[in-house]
């Protein structure tokens, strides 16, 4: 079936979103048509506003509209601990547990030779600088247990091993190959509590 060009364009753009197939894109487009002009306008403004204002924090590389981000600028956070994650979504997942009160460091990816992503494309050197500058006592590696995740953990360990810092990795009650962002809060809480020396 042929859609009128503006509707076809909207469906095409929704299909570019991860996990959205043709049928989901059509449902979303038809939903937009049912929305009021005010709601559509606010949705469009929110998209543009988010794209223009949200950036990586210059300290931890989490996503934020302020720099430093809300976590780095919070004076109630424990500066002696940094939790290292691959992606900003992992920060959100861990914050949902309300168990962890330290700082974060987002690597902005994982070491993946097949994708041409090496250590220099990540924020590992920045992590080393923060650990030294802040006098961090513990670095918690909250990296997914995948081949790329394990390679990244080994590299981060090798970079930090000369420093007087305890390096731990969260315990995983998750199947190998799963992602932090999809874990439930209880599993994540137990993983933080059960972290171990590496």
Instruction: Tell me roughly what share of residues is in helical segments.
Output: 40-55%
Biggest β-sheet strands, sense, barrel: 5 strands, mixed
CATH fold type of the largest domain: Dna Topoisomerase Vi A Subunit, Chain: A, domain 2
Q: Could you give the distance between the termini? A: 57 Å
Question: Low-confidence parts, pLDDT < 50 over ≥5 residues?
Answer: none
CATH architectural category of the largest domain? 3-Layer(aba) Sandwich
The H-and-E topology, N to C, reads as HHHEEEHEHEHEHE
- The whole-angstrom Rg is 20 Å
Number of domains: 2
Number of helices: 7
Structure, described:
This protein has helices spanning 5-15, 22-34, 37-53, 88-96, 124-134, 147-160, 185-193; strands spanning 55-56, 63-64, 78-85, 102-106, 138-141, 166-169, 196-197. It contains 7 helices and 7 strands. It folds into 2 domains: 5-53, Orthogonal Bundle (Helicase, Ruva Protein, domain 3); 63-197, Dna Topoisomerase Vi A Subunit, Chain: A, domain 2 (3-Layer(aba) Sandwich). Strand 1 (55-56) and strand 2 form a beta hairpin. 42% of the residues lie in helices and 14% in strands. With 198 residues, the chain is α/β, with parallel strands linked by helices. The mean pLDDT is 92.
């Amino acid at each position: 079936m042929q859609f009128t060009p503006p509707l076809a364009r909207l469906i095409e753009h929704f299909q570019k979103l991860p996990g959205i197939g043709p049928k989901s894109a059509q449902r979303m487009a038809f939903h937009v048509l049912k929305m009021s002009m005010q709601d559509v306008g606010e949705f469009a403004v929110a998209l543009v506003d988010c794209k223009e204002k949200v950036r990586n924090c210059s300290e931890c590389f989490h996503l934020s509209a302020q720099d430093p981000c809300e976590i780095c600028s919070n004076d109630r956070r424990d500066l002696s601990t940094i939790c290292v994650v691959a992606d900003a979504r992992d920060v959100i997942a861990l914050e949902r547990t309300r168990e962890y009160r330290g700082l974060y460091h987002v690597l902005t990816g994982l070491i993946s030779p097949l994708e041409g992503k090496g250590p220099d494309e990540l924020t590992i050197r920045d992590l080393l600088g923060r650990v030294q500058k802040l006098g961090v006592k513990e670095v918690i590696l909250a990296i997914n247990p995948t081949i790329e995740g394990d390679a990244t953990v080994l590299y981060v360990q090798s970079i930090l091993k000369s420093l007087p810092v305890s390096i731990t990795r969260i315990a995983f009650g998750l199947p190998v190959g799963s992602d932090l962002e999809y874990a439930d809060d209880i599993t994540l809480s137990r993983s933080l509590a059960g972290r171990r020396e590496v």
